[in-house]
Amino acid sequence: MTTMPAPGSYAEFDGLSTYYELHGEGPPLLLLHGGLLTIEVAFGDVLPALAERHKVVAIELQGHGHTADIDRPLSLERLADDVAHVLTEVGVDRADVIGFSLGGLVTVELARRHPERVGRLVLASIHASPDGFHEEVRSPDAQPGVGRMPTEDNFRAWEEAYRAVAPVPDHFSAFSAKLAAFVGSLEGWSDDELRELTGPTLVLIGDNDFVRVEHAAHMQEVLPDARLAVVPGATHVGLLHETDLVMPILRRFLGA
């Protein structure tokens, strides 16, 4: 993974200081990471290439990385509003968006609540309803490293990255539990709600992802202007690190 300096700043909104980074020049592109990840862990392998053609705005959501958790319940609506405020803070009226996993769920809500702020959407490794996951991922007995689940080494690396930058380094376990409960409570969106996303959309998953290929295909059919890309040999955790396969897909979609 490429190590980059963190040219970060903070935007204040709704009691939260949201950390963001700016990279590159060009059409604005917003990056929203997955659960428990930092910008670097989620996008470190693709960010330099994306910044060659875009002004990249990368955000760390509530409780992630440099952005402290606060005494505020997690909700997709609040997280989407946080993101919209950061765009305002950096003077970006409208941006294309790559949202991975949790960040993809926030992207859907951002597009529904603030449609004027988004252009093309990349929904990477997201589900629109709980049944979109493979059964072993939904199981309360799912264990690290079994089937499609992240390994213990993955969780260890995420915690190390968190501890290196978080305002309260020892909060990782408590926040992990808070986030798991939140994601587990999400009911998703109906097909009619998904049809509200009228802009060009790329549904992107790995063929060994958390998300079932059939579910991703259904999302592609329901969304008004969508295409589907399934990356061969890619897991949920590894999807955005398959740069040789993913970057041509992203460049073609974002540059169209």
Could you name the key traits of this structure?
22% strand; eight-stranded mixed β-sheet; globular; 8 strands; 10 helices; 256 residues; alpha/beta; Rossmann fold; disordered N terminus
N to C succession of SSEs: EEEHHEHEHEHHHHEHEH
Categorize the overall geometry: globular
CATH topology: Rossmann fold
Task: Estimate what percentage of residues fall within beta strands.
Answer: 15-25%
In total, the number of domains comes to 1
Strand order of the largest sheet: 1-2-4-3-5-6-7-8
Helix percent band: 25-40%
Number of helices: 10
Helical/strand content category? alpha/beta
What are the segments in which pLDDT stays under 50 over at least 5 consecutive residues?
1-5
The termini sit apart by: 28 Å
CATH class: Alpha Beta
Oligomeric state, counting identical vs distinct chains: single chain
Specify the CATH homologous superfamily: Alpha/Beta hydrolase fold, catalytic domain
Largest beta-sheet details: 8 strands, mixed
> Mean of residue pLDDT?
93
Gyration radius, in Å: 17 Å
Q: How many DSSP E strands?
A: 8
Gross CATH architecture: 3-Layer(aba) Sandwich
